[in-house]
Specification:
mainly alpha, Growth Hormone, Chain: A, globular
Length: 465
């Protein structure tokens, strides 16, 4: 049995990986489109096509990565080795993506395709294992929620660091050049992220032996057949993450052009990544008394209320700040529950088919998330073009409406659909039975649990998983 120190060593080791991911992810979601249009000088529609193509290719790579993980057999496990192998490419390509070469418009566009696609593939190598490794760390539902919660806390810390520090660093390191400022800022974030993945590799361990025999691709797909909870969960990714990507990717445009207060970008972005930590701390406590589905919906409703307040507030700074706080609180409640739920359809698939396909299912989830991101980025560009957006200029009424559409109206619509869709998710009701039967089939002790939990009979909390 491991000590509490060992348990927390793994929890924190797991969490810092998402801190590292968000040093890159937050830069991509908040600043990449702006970097391409207003700093590198690429055409808006060209950037939309770039984001769409690159992210769909990246999504296919997610699926391939999942199959690779499920076929991996090393002394370190199936998912863990990729934290080590992917760290350096992840850091280097992060730096290169935010570099502006002096090679003309066509050359810059080609360079953007190569570097962003390379970064996306490197990100896949380290990010997909974060999801696929969770079922291997523990079968205990409460511990999964704890791991997911810590992961989200660290992700919000990483996102907050990017949100608050980026523009001041760009100004300080750029000496009047945004291109130089973004480059050196990304050097700092990428090196720190690379080091964090080495920490993760050292501190996590795959304790639960889900399945040792090799399986074919056809057998892997069988884990998806009839997996209705996963169908609902997967479809919901499009709407939940689609709304988030529209909102986050349009923040810098909204406060630069619609509110005419670019000085608020860091504050609002910081609120959006720091305030959710409060909700994330609350989520595990609430999860002891209600189903994950219900808690996810509650968080989404709170997030929706915050977006509505921002919409009603117009350019009123107090209303915008208050709305951002409410939206961030709701996002903080739903995100750890989402990542905790992600492992449960994996167990359901193993329970029904006998095939453990954590890597493949996680990669498909990643693919769907990339499709959502691709569509949000591409459609954002289409709406900006429709509104006659012109970089670094005062925008027309149609341009301002397009920015508002991207930042608030579309995210609200997609959030409503996400809430409604989760009414059909029923796995919470039967998961304790599934977990008990899987434990009988594979009775290895769960070393991730502390002595108090084991003394209590290693029971899941009564209404959640």
């Amino acid at each position: 049995m491991v000590t509490k120190t060992g348990i927390w060593k793994q929890r924190l080791g797991y969490g810092v990986a998402d801190f590292a991911c968000n040093l890159i992810w937050q830069m991509i979601t908040l600043y990449l489109m702006f970097f391409y249009t207003d700093v590198m000088g690429l055409e808006v529609l060209a950037v939309s096509a770039l984001l769409l193509v690159t992210r769909i290719v990246d999504g296919v790579a997610d699926a391939v990565m999942g199959i690779i993980i499920d076929k991996t057999r090393t002394r370190w496990g199936k998912s863990r080795p990729y934290f080590l192998f992917g760290a350096i490419p992840f850091g280097l390509l992060g730096i290169l993506t935010f570099y502006v070469p002096d090679i003309g418009p066509v050359g810059k566009l080609i360079y953007a395709y190569i570097t962003y696609m390379g970064l996306s593939l490197a990100y896949t190598m380290v990010n997909i294992p974060m999801a696929s490794i969770l079922p291997s760390l523990t079968r205990d539902g409460q511990e999964r929620t704890m791991l997911a919660t810590i992961r989200i806390i660290f992700s919000f810390i990483g996102a907050t660091a990017v949100s608050v520090l980026t523009m001041p660093l760009v100004k300080m390191l750029g000496n009047g050049s945004q291109a130089q400022g973004f480059f050196w800022t990304m050097v700092i974030f990428s090196v720190v992220g690379m080091m964090m993945f080495f920490v993760t590799f050292k501190n996590v361990e795959e304790k639960v032996k889900l399945q040792q025999e090799k399986v074919t691709v056809t057998q892997t797909f069988s884990a998806l057949k009839g997996n209705k909870p996963w169908y609902i969960f997967a479809a919901n990714i499009i709407f939940m993450f689609g709304g988030m990507f529209f909102h986050q990717g349009s923040l810098i445009y909204y406060f630069t052009y619609y509110v005419n207060r670019p000085d608020l970008i860091g504050l609002i972005a910081g609120i959006g990544s720091l305030i959710p930590i409060i909700g994330t701390f609350i989520a595990p406590l609430l999860a002891r008394h209600m189903y994950k589905r219900k808690l996810f919906q509650i968080g989404s409703v709170i997030n929706l209320a915050g977006l509505l307040m921002m919409l009603i507030s117009g350019t009123n700074v107090f209303g915008l700040i208050a709305g951002a706080v409410i939206a961030g609180l709701g996002n903080g409640v739903r995100m750890p529950i989402y990542f905790s739920m992600q492992a449960d359809p994996v167990d359901y698939g193993e329970w029904k088919s006998g095939i453990s396909a954590g890597g493949f299912i996680s990669s498909i989830n990643g693919f769907i998330g990339k499709v959502a991101m691709a569509l949000a980025g591409a459609l954002s560009g289409v709406f900006l073009t429709w509104g006659h957006y012109i970089p670094n200029q005062t925008q027309s009424a149609s341009g301002l409406f397009a920015i508002q559409l991207n930042y608030l109206i579309i995210p609200m619509i997609l959030t409503v659909i996400s809430i409604m869709m989760m009414f059909f998710y029923r796995l919470d009701h039967i998961f304790p039975q599934i977990r008990a039967e899987l434990q009988e089939r594979n009775p290895e002790p769960d070393d991730s649990l502390d002595e108090t939990t084991l003394a209590a009979g290693n029971k899941p909390f009564p209404h959640s998983v």
